[in-house]
Amino acid sequence: MKTYRYVGLLMIISGATLWGISGPMIQWLFQNSSLTSGKFLVVRLLLAGIITLAILYFTKKNIFGVWKHPRQWIQLIIFGVLGMLGAQYAFIETIHVSTAVTAVLFQFLGPILITIYVAIQTKKMPTVIQLLAVVAALVGTFFLITNGSVENIVLSKKAIILGLLTTLGFTFYTLHPASLIKEWGTIVIIGWGMLIGGIVLFIYNQDFSVMHLAHTLTFNTLSMLLLVIISGTLSFILYIGSLKYLSATETSLLSSIEPLVAAVVSIVWLNESFGIYQLIGGFFITATVVFLSIPSKGARKK
């Protein structure tokens, strides 16, 4: 029991770190190329989905079984369009119109909705540890995004709307695929989710052209695009895979290190400023991980 918990903790922390790093990478890509959010996501989702499913197929995994059950493939399509594509598109667009740190912080508001949903579903109040984690995370994200003053929040109406959609998308893709993952496995569901999302976006983006994309990218931007695809795919697999070992509340709250990672990388690499209150925010976000790493009394007894 303890070993499984540690595996889950390692998976979510690794996945959150990769996702935190990918935000500044995407921001750099937009700053150094003419890629739009839609074209970027078409490439990212299609390539990641095809590669993931191809690896599973050649390792003799059953990747088509889910399509034999109407109720499950309907769930899968909903996950691919609203969960995978919806969350990523809102996230990427938020980066495009603001910054990587802002996008990650809006995403992190999702755990609040998840905690409320789980509490209502189970008809149980969150534990003291979970409540402390929520408080620490909220305080941390407030300081991180405002540097101690609400007046420092300067977001356009579009950024706020896209940010809120990112929050909803994050909540949905955390909760919706749980039964599918239990039946078919994490990587199968993630692979199909990415491929479905990529196909839908490709159909929507009728002006998408591989030739135009090839002329747009340089060696550096192409390399960055591939790194973003790899890191983003791994982060999704690790994040949702951790749901096998941890509760949805724990998994979503442990992802609180994402804004901290994104902020640190943005400072070191993209030369963004970082104030004393933001450092305090980073401390509180780290405290969230510490709180949720402590097993509850029930888990210790088991």
Automatic annotation (TrEMBL):
One of its GO terms (cellular component) is plasma membrane. It is a multi-pass membrane protein. Keywords: Cell membrane, Membrane, Plasmid, Transmembrane, Transmembrane helix. InterPro entries: AA-Vitamin_Transporters, EamA_dom, EmrE-like. SUPFAM superfamilies: Multidrug resistance efflux transporter EmrE. The keyword Transmembrane helix applies. It comes from the Bacteria. It is found in: Cell membrane. It comes from Priestia filamentosa. This is Uncharacterized protein. The lineage of its organism: Bacteria, Bacillati, Bacillota, Bacilli, Bacillales. Belongs to the EamA transporter family.
